[in-house]
Design a protein that fits this description.
The complex is a heterodimer. Chain A is mostly helical. Chain A has 15 helices and 8 strands. The radius of gyration of chain A is 23 Å and the shape is globular. Chain B is mostly helical. The chains are: A mainly alpha, B mainly alpha. Chains A and B meet through helix 2, helix 3, helix 4 and helix 15 of A and helix 3, helix 4, helix 5, helix 7 and helix 13 of B. The structure holds CIS-heme D hydroxychlorin gamma-spirolactone (HDD) and protoporphyrin IX containing FE (HEM) (2 copies). One protoporphyrin IX containing FE sits between chains A (18-19, 21-22, 25-26, 61-62, 65-66, 69-70, 72-73, 76, 102, 105-106, 135, 138-139, 142-143) and B (54, 58, 61).
C-alpha cells in the first residue's frame, strides 16, 4: 500500500473512533438530565444514583471525545495539507462556531460536574441541558463541513483557484440539512440502543432490576423515537445523493447499467471485475421510486462514468446494505418498545431483555457503515468534483508508522474505557445492594 | 477586521500558554514533589483546576482553527514541516487528558491509580517540551522549504528542524515556565504549610527559568540563530526583557511573602513581557526558515472570510467569556474580589 492509502486508513480509523465518543458525549447528557429531573421531582434516591453514575460515564467519554477531537483538528491539516490550504478558509465558519459550541459545552460541564450542592438546584440542572444542546450543535456544525465536501458551494473554482468565497453559503451548503438531520438521529439511535442494551444485560443478571429497568426505559424511549424517524430521514438522504452524486448512488446500489424503472437490489455479491451483481433479490422499479419518487425515473449506472471517477463499489454497496438492514431492524425494535409500555407482561419475559441486549452494538455498526457509504462513496474526490484525495495528501513519507501508532494507542484507550465502565457499573450495583 | 482576528489569534495563543501552561505545570510540580506532597498536590489541582480543566485546552483548538481559516499559507507550512513533533504533542495531550480523568473518576480506587498518576505526571512534562520544540522549529531557521521532496532526505526535512540543542533548550524553557506558573498560581489556592511548599517550589522554578533563559539566549547568540540575534538587537524587545528582569525582584518578594494575588499578576506579566519581546522583534515574519522569513500576513485569507471569522469570534467571545468568568468566580478561582480576612491576617 502507498502513503496515500495509509493516510486514508488513518483518517477513517481516527474519525471512526472519535465519532463513537462524540455521539456518546452528545446523547448521554440528555439521559442524565431526564434522570436528574426525576430526582428533583420525586426525590427518589434511585434517580440520583442513576444520574451520578451516568455523569461519571459522561465525564470519561467526554474527555476521550475531546482529546481524540483535538487530535483530529490537527490531523485534517497533517494528512491533507493541500485540502486544508484551500478548503480551510471556506469551511472555517462551521469549525469556528463549533469551537464556540465546545467552549460552551466545556464551561457547562464544569458547572455541572462540580456544582453538586454548591449551585442552586434549578441552575445546576439547567447547565446539564446546556451540555446536551451545545453537544448536538457542535455535531451538526462538523457535519455541515462534511456536507460541503459532498456538495461544494460558496466559491467559484477558476483555473485551480478558489475565488469569491462566501463562508455562509458554504456553511449552508445543499447537503447540510439532510446530513445533519440523519447524523443527529443516528447519534441518538446508536447511543440509546447501546445504553439500553447494557442496562438490559444488568436486568438479566438480576442486578438491582428496579434501577436498571428505569435506566433502560429512559434510553429506549429516546432510541425508539429516533429509530422510527431514521428511515424517513435516510430516504431524504438517498434522494439527495441521487440528485447530486449519481456515482455514489450507483455504487450504493451496485448498479452498473443505466436503467429506466430501475429495480432495487437487496443483498447480492458484487463482482467488480465482470461488473455484475450475483445472488441478489430484485424489487422491480423500487430504486427509481426511492431515489426520485417516480417508478419510471432513469437511474444512471456506473458504466456511465469515467473509470477514474468510480468509487470502490463493493465496500460502498455492502456498507449500505448493513446500514439499511440494521435501520429497519431498529425501527421495528423501537415500535416493539413502545408497544411493551402498554403490555407490561412482556417486561417479565427474559426473551425481551435478551433481545434488547443483543441489539446493543448494532446502532454503532450502522453508524460506522453509514460513514463508510458517505466517505468511500465520494472517492476519488476529497472535494466532490473539485479536488482529488490524491492531490491533497501530505508529502511526508512513512504514514504507515503514524497509522499503526494511532491504532495501538486508540485500541488501548478503547479497552481501558470499556474496563472503566465495567468498574463503574459494578460500583453502582454494589452501592445499591 | 484583520486586526481583530490577529488580536484573537494572539489572545488565544497567550491564554493557551498561560492557562494550558499552568495546567501542564501542575503535573510537573507533582512529578518533582516528595511522596506526601504528591498526594496533596493531586487533591489541590483537582479542586482548583478541575472545573476549567477542559476549557483551558480549548484555547489550543481555537488557535489552530483561526490559523487554518485566516492564515492558510502559514498554517500549511506549520502542519507539513512539524508533522512529527506535533503528533508527539497530540499523543502527550491524549495521555494526559485521559490520565487526569481516569485518576479522578475511576469508580474503584486501587493499584491502577499508580499507573494513572505516573502517566499524568510524565505526559505533563513531555507535552510542553514537545510544544516548545515545535515552536522553536518555527523560529530556529532550520526548516528547508521545498516542493520537490525527493531532493532531500527525510531527516533533513522532517527531523533536523526540531531535533537540535536550541530546540531542546526552548522545550525545557517552556516546561520550566509551566511549572513556575502552576506553583505560583497554587500559592493562592492553599493554606499554611502547603502554601509554604508552593512558595518554595515557585522560587525554585523561577531560578530554573532564569538560568534556562540565559542559556537559551547565550546559546542562540553563539550559534547565530537569527531569531535570537534580532531579538537582542531590537531596542523594544530588549527593553521588555530588561523590564521583566527588574520585575523579578518584586515577584520574588511577593512569592516569598506568599502573597496570593500579587504573585499571580506578576507571574502573568512576566510571561506577557517575554512573549511580547519575542514576537515584537519579528512580527509579522513569524516563521523563519533556512531560505527566507515567512510573513504571517502573506497569503492571508480573502476579505469575506476574515469578516465572517471576525464576526463569529465576536459572537463566540460574547457568549464564552462571561460564562467562563462566571465559572471561575463560582468556584472561587478568581480571588480578586475577595479581600478576605485571611489575606489581611497574613501580614
Ligand atoms: C444509527 C445509524 C444509522 C441508521 C439506522 C441508518 N443510517 Fe443512514 N447514515 C448514518 C447512520 C444511520 C450516518 C452514519 O450517520 C450517515 C453518514 C453520513 C451522514 O450524514 O449520516 C448515513 C448516511 C446515509 C446516506 C448517505 C448520505 C450522503 O452520502 O450524503 C444515505 C443515503 C442513508 N444514510 C440512508 C439510510 C436509510 C435509507 C436508512 C434506513 C433504514 C438508514 N440510512 C439508516
Ligand atoms: C461527524 C463527525 C463529528 C461529530 C458528530 C463530532 C462531534 C463532536 C462532539 C459532540 C464533541 C464533544 C465531545 C464530547 O461531548 O464527548 C466533539 C469533540 C471534538 N471534536 Fe468532533 N465531531 C465530529 C468530527 C470531528 C472532526 C472531523 C473534527 C476535526 C476537525 C472534530 C473536532 C473535534 C474537537 C477538536 C473536539 C474537542 C472539543 C472539546 O475539547 O470539547 N470532530 N466532537
Ligand atoms: C465521524 C464520522 C466520520 C467517519 C466515520 C468518517 C469516515 C471516513 C472514511 C472511512 C474515510 C476514508 C475514505 C476513503 O479514503 O476511502 C474518510 C475520509 C475523510 N473524511 Fe470522513 N468520516 C467522518 C466524518 C467526517 C467529517 C465531519 C469530515 C470533515 C469535516 C471528514 C473529512 C474527511 C476527509 C478530509 C477525509 C480524507 C479524504 C477522503 O478520503 O475523501 N469526515 N472519512
Amino acid at each position: 500500500m502507498e502513503n496515500l492509502d495509509y493516510a486514508r486508513l488513518q483518517m477513517a480509523f481516527t474519525l471512526g473512533f472519535h465519532i463513537i465518543f462524540a455521539c456518546i458525549g452528545m446523547v448521554m447528557p440528555f439521559f442524565m438530565i431526564v434522570a436528574h429531573r426525576r430526582w428533583l421531582k420525586t426525590k427518589n434516591p434511585l434517580y440520583l444514583k442513576l444520574t451520578k453514575a451516568w455523569l461519571k460515564g459522561v465525564a470519561i467519554f467526554f474527555v476521550t471525545g475531546a482529546v481524540s477531537g483535538t487530535a483530529l483538528s490537527f490531523e485534517l491539516g497533517m494528512l491533507w495539507p493541500e485540502f486544508m490550504k484551500h478548503a480551510g478558509p471556506i469551511i472555517g465558519m462551521p469549525f469556528s462556531l463549533e469551537g464556540a459550541a465546545f467552549f460552551v459545552e466545556a464551561i457547562a460541564l464544569g458547572f455541572y460536574l462540580y456544582g453538586w450542592n454548591r449551585l442552586p438546584e434549578k441552575f445546576h440542572w439547567f447547565t446539564g441541558v446546556i451540555i446536551g444542546i451545545s453537544g448536538v450543535a457542535s455535531g451538526i456544525l462538523v457535519v455541515s463541513a462534511n456536507g460541503w465536501m459532498n456538495a461544494p458551494s460558496g466559491f467559484d473554482y477558476v483555473d485551480g483557484d478558489f475565488i469569491n468565497i462566501d463562508p455562509v453559503k458554504a456553511l449552508l451548503n445543499p447537503a447540510w440539512f439532510t446530513q445533519a438531520l440523519h447524523m443527529t438521529l443516528a447519534a441518538f439511535v446508536a447511543t440509546s440502543f447501546a445504553v439500553a442494551g447494557i442496562h438490559a444485560y444488568q436486568v438479566l443478571r438480576g442486578n438491582h432490576p428496579q434501577l436498571h429497568k428505569e435506566a433502560f426505559k429512559i434510553a429506549a424511549f429516546f432510541g425508539g423515537i429516533a429509530a422510527i424517524l431514521q428511515p424517513l430521514s435516510g430516504d431524504l438522504s438517498a434522494k439527495d445523493v441521487a440528485e447530486r452524486q449519481p456515482a455514489k448512488l450507483a455504487a450504493m446500489e451496485a448498479h452498473y447499467e443505466t436503467e429506466i424503472g430501475a429495480p432495487l437490489f437487496i443483498g447480492g455479491v458484487v463482482d467488480e471485475e465482470n461488473k455484475e451483481v450475483n445472488h441478489k433479490i430484485e424489487i422491480p422499479n423500487a430504486l427509481s421510486f426511492l431515489a426520485f419518487g417516480d417508478f419510471d425515473a432513469e437511474v444512471k449506472g456506473l458504466n456511465e462514468f469515467p473509470e477514474d471517477e468510480i468509487p470502490p463499489v463493493s465496500i460502498v454497496h455492502y456498507a449500505f446494505q448493513v446500514m439499511v438492514g440494521i435501520g429497519t431492524l431498529l425501527m421495528l425494535s423501537g415500535l416493539l418498545f413502545f408497544i411493551s409500555l402498554k403490555k407490561k407482561s412482556w417486561s417479565n419475559n427474559r426473551k425481551y431483555w435478551w433481545f434488547f441486549m443483543l441489539l446493543a452494538p448494532l446502532g454503532f455498526v450502522a453508524l460506522e457503515a453509514g460513514w463508510v457509504v458517505t466517505e468511500v462513496g465520494r472517492q476519488p474526490w476529497i472535494i466532490y468534483q473539485v479536488m482529488r484525495t490524491s492531490e491533497a495528501v501530505t508529502p511526508m513519507p512513512g504514514m504507515k508508522f503514524s497509522f499503526y501508532m494511532y491504532v495501538v494507542v486508540y485500541i488501548t484507550l478503547a479497552f481501558t474505557v470499556t474496563w472503566l465502565m465495567k468498574r463503574q457499573i459494578k460500583a453502582l450495583n454494589a452501592d445499591t445492594k | 477586521m484583520l486586526y481583530l482576528v490577529l488580536f484573537f489569534t494572539l489572545f488565544s495563543f497567550l491564554l493557551y500558554v498561560l492557562l494550558g501552561g499552568a495546567d501542564f505545570g501542575a503535573g510537573i510540580v507533582e512529578l518533582f514533589s516528595s511522596r506526601e506532597n504528591k498526594k496533596i498536590n493531586r487533591d489541590t489541582i483537582y479542586k482548583v483546576m478541575g472545573p476549567v480543566w477542559e476549557a483551558n485546552h480549548i484555547w489550543l483548538i481555537i488557535l489552530i482553527v483561526i490559523l487554518w481559516i485566516a492564515f492558510p499559507v502559514y498554517f500549511n507550512i506549520i502542519i507539513i514541516y512539524l508533522h512529527i513533533p506535533l503528533t508527539l504533542v497530540l499523543m502527550g495531550i491524549t495521555m494526559r487528558g485521559v490520565a487526569f480523568i481516569f485518576r479522578h473518576y475511576d469508580a474503584v480506587k486501587d493499584k491502577s491509580q499508580y499507573l494513572y498518576n505516573a502517566m499524568f505526571r510524565i505526559s505533563s512534562l513531555i507535552t510542553p517540551i514537545f510544544l516548545g520544540m515545535s515552536f522553536s522549529a518555527l523560529i530556529g531557521g532550520k526548516i528547508t522549504l521545498t516542493s520537490d521532496y525527493s531532493q532531500h532526505s527525510f531527516q533533513e526535512i522532517f527531523m533536523f528542524p526540531w531535533t537540535n540543542i536550541f530546540s531542546l533548550l526552548v522545550g525545557l524553557f517552556y516546561a520550566a515556565l509551566c511549572a513556575f506558573l502552576a506553583s505560583t498560581l497554587l500559592i493562592g489556592e492553599s493554606k499554611g504549610e502547603i502554601r509554604q511548599m508552593y512558595s518554595r517550589k515557585s522560587r525554585i522554578f523561577t531560578s530554573v527559568l532564569v538560568i534556562l533563559g540565559f542559556l537559551l539566549i547565550a546559546y542562540g547568540y553563539i550559534t547565530e540563530v537569527a531569531f535570537i540575534e534580532d531579538f537582542i538587537t531590537n531596542p523594544v524587545s530588549i527593553g521588555a526583557v530588561l523590564l521583566s528582569g527588574v520585575l523579578l525582584i518584586p515577584l520574588w518578594r511577593s512569592i516569598k511573602k506568599q502573597n496570593r494575588i500579587g504573585s499571580r499578576y506578576l507571574a502573568g506579566l512576566q510571561v506577557i513581557l517575554i512573549l511580547f519581546a519575542a514576537l515584537y522583534a519579528h512580527y509579522p515574519y513569524i516563521i523563519i526558515t533556512a531560505q527566507k522569513e515567512v510573513n504571517l500576513l502573506e497569503g492571508v485569507a480573502p476579505e469575506s472570510v476574515i469578516t465572517t471569522l471576525g464576526i463569529s469570534l465576536i459572537i463566540g467571545g460574547l457568549i464564552i467569556l462571561p460564562g467562563l468568568f462566571h465559572l471561575m468566580k463560582s468556584f472561587k478561582m478568581i480571588k480578586v474580589f475577595e479581600k478576605d480576612a485571611e489575606e489581611a491576617g497574613d501580614h
